[in-house]
Amino acid sequence: MIMPANVKTDKTYPIPDSMKAWVLMEQGELSFSEKPVPMPGKAEVLVRIDAVAICATDLEIIYHGPPALIRGGSPYNKNFTPGHEYMGTVVALGPGVDEFGIGERVTVEIHAGCGQCKRCREGMYTSCHNYGKNYGDVDKGHRANGFTTDGGFCEYQVNNVNTMIPIADSMSDEEATLVVTAGTAMYGLTELGGLVAGESVVVTGPGPIGLLGVAVAKALGAQPVILTGTRDNRLEIGRKLGADHVVNIRREDPVEAVRSIMNGKGVDYVVESSGAAGSFNEAAQMINRGGKICLAAFPSEQVEVDLAHIVRNNIYVYGIRGEGKSATHRAEAFMRQKRFDATLVHTHTFPLAELPEAIRYAKDRVDDAIKVVVKNDRGRDS
Ligand SMILES: [Zn+2]
Ligand SMILES: [Zn+2]
Fold it and tell me: How far apart, in whole angstroms, are the C-alpha atoms of residue 37 and residue 158?
């Protein structure tokens, strides 16, 4: 591919003119088509995508639309490529980029804020006030891969240098796709105060964010870490990732179980990652006075909240969006130091061409699937 003179390339990594890319058609329908390889602009690099994990939010986007926002509206029939939890190899450097080298393995955060708004200036780029303004004369430079701009279910993608995290050589492609998920858990705990050593934490919902929430809380020194959920196999993985106690809420009342583990007292923090409708009020009953609740998942319907209980007990509530404040770098540091084994959460791998089958595994939890990864041929074997 002919790149402009101010874009650096290397013949070790030849770049084709076009690439294979999955495109979202009608709701729930993806088509494997051909797209031009995108060109990196200022402060951007071109990443050859080696592996990409499927997230519950991808399923939301593919089947329901939000939180994707393409040209101000729904993502259907707009030649849009979803996918946001990807990693790969740097193959071209846009104008002015010297932060990365060609051939470097990286994993990428989803959000590049506009860099111009108040929140971006505060490091809260996942809450960028210009979210979704990527097109035409309102292009503010904001990108959210697979949400507001093309994502990772393809062979190449451009990324702002601020969204990239170099990964250890010892880390497999599959493990590297999990760094952002761990980063999201880290961001939640950072927002709760971060210094959780010796403090008690409940994580509700053993999905990927909940399981890695357990791992990150434990790595930060929390004690005890309690995980609640409905599936024994996932609770068992939670134990391996650092949960001191697990509670199967099909067999036990979660509030009573937590209070009994805590000798009648509540916990300091709850990281709510189940998105179940009743989970917020349960979290409020598990927490001690002055404790903090982080909402890392959301129910699809509106729920009733016992506000009087929140106010009378001085409970703090935090909504968190994505992987803000460079939390992903801190998560990668834990993974690099082998503080927990994120690969326990990865269960299945498919080639990129079999994305619909991979999605079926993730959506229907076929064969107890948790994190399903799709790989390009050129990614390395783990
Ligand atoms: Zn995700
Ligand atoms: Zn911004």
Answer: 9
What's the gap in Å between 41 CA and the centre of ligand 2? 18
Note residues around ion ligand 2 (Cβ under 5 angstroms): 113-114, 117, 120, 128, 130
Tokens of 213: 């929430």
Cα 259 from Cα 282, distance rounded (Å): 11
Buried b / exposed e along 65-86 (16+ C-beta atoms within 10 A):
bebbbbeeebbbeeebbbbbbb
Ligand nearest to the CA of 122: 2
- pLDDT tens, position by position, 48-82: 999 999 999 999 999 999 999 998 899 999 999 99
Domain 18-110+145-166+341-375 has CATH 3.30.1360.120: no
Within a 10 A sphere around the Cβ of 212, how many other Cβ atoms?
31
Distance 65 CA to ligand 2 centre (A): 22
Outline where DSSP puts E strands in the chain.
18-24, 30-36, 44-53, 85-93, 105-108, 111-112, 143-144, 156-160, 164-166, 201-204, 225-229, 245-248, 267-272, 287-295, 316-319, 346-351, 371-375
Sequence ranges of the domains in the chain? 18-110+145-166+341-375, 181-319
Burial code of 367-382, b = ≥16 C-beta within 10 A, e = fewer? eebbbbbbbbeebeee
State pTM to two decimals: 0.94
Fold of 181-319: Rossmann fold (3.40.50)
Q: How close is the Cα of 140 to the center of ligand 2, in Å?
A: 8
339: Cβ contacts below 8 Å, ≥ 6 apart: 215, 219
Output Rg (C-alpha) for the chain, integer angstroms.
21
Q: What is the pLDDT of residues 309-347, one digit of tens each?
A: 999 999 999 999 999 999 999 999 999 999 999 999 999
Of 237, 268, 235, the C-alpha closest to 252 is 235
Interval between CA 262 and ligand 1 midpoint (Å) = 32
The secondary structure of 6-39 as a DSSP string is: TSB--TTS---SEEEEEEE-STT-EEEEEEEPP-
Q: Do 315 and 272 meet the contact criterion of CB atoms below 8 Å apart?
A: no
Helix (H, G, I), strand (E, B) or coil at 64: coil
